[in-house]
Design a protein that fits this description.
The protein is of the alpha/beta class. It has a domain of about 140 residues. It is about 30% helix and about 35% strand. The protein is built from 3 helices and 9 strands. Strands 2, 3, 6, 7, 8 and 9 form a 6-stranded mixed β-sheet that branches. A 3-stranded mixed β-sheet has the order 1-5-4. The chain is elongated.
């Protein structure tokens, strides 16, 4: 008789933890997204590439909604800005590969000494929560980008599209776990986008 009681207790705990993350109608993903810490100093020298704020059109009419918690029938909400955040992560990914990167706000002109400007569109920025079985909650984050590199020496703008997903399964994932899954998908998309831009010759080469 002890085993069914333990399973029931785990399910109750799972619901309590998820419910505690936000008001009943929302599940809030806390904090902002950032690049993983890197060893060593940032790259030196003048910026080789400028990254502008990316465009983003929310899939939902409600501000900040990036997905659904299907079992609790509520919105998943993140209070950050996907377009600005993904541009930050792409600039950080350039820096991690030894390329000094400058961040520009949307509409700001790039300095004359910057050879390439990278702009982009966030196509998907989603996080979904589902209960797979009595002992497992399934969390999936998906981020998709379209990137464009333009500037001096380029015959035409060079474009690429990337997509990345991250998954977590746990008995009772906490709000911070949801942020980590979203951050993993976002950083993977940024890293792959920068890799493709560099390998395609549309941005400064890596060290």
């Amino acid at each position: 008789m002890k085993r069914p009681i333990l399973i029931l207790s785990a399910v109750v705990c799972s619901l309590v933890f998820l419910s505690a993350c936000a008001p009943r109608s929302q599940l809030v993903v806390p904090g902002q997204l950032a690049r993983p810490p890197q060893a060593g100093p940032p790259p030196a020298g003048p910026p080789a590439v400028a990254v502008t704020d990316f465009s983003f059109t929310p899939a939902e009419s409600e501000p900040g909604v990036i997905g659904r918690d299907h079992d609790q029938v509520r919105s998943v909400v993140w209070k950050g800005e996907p377009g600005r955040t993904m541009a930050d992560l792409v600039a950080g990914a350039f820096a991690d590969r030894g390329v000094p990167a400058l961040r520009l706000k949307a509409g700001d002109p790039a300095p004359d000494n910057v050879a390439r400007v990278v702009s982009g569109t966030v196509r998907r920025f989603e996080l979904t929560v589902r209960r797979r079985n009595v002992m497992s909650v399934y969390v999936e984050a998906t981020v998709a980008l379209s990137l464009t590199s333009s500037g001096a020496g380029a015959a035409a703008p060079w474009e690429t599209s990337v997509s990345s997903s991250a998954v977590l399964q746990d008995v009772f994932p906490l709000a911070e776990d949801l942020r980590k899954v979203l951050s993993s998908a976002a950083n993977s998309a940024a890293e792959e986008g920068v890799r493709r831009l560099q390998e395609g010759g549309a941005a400064a080469t890596s060290r």
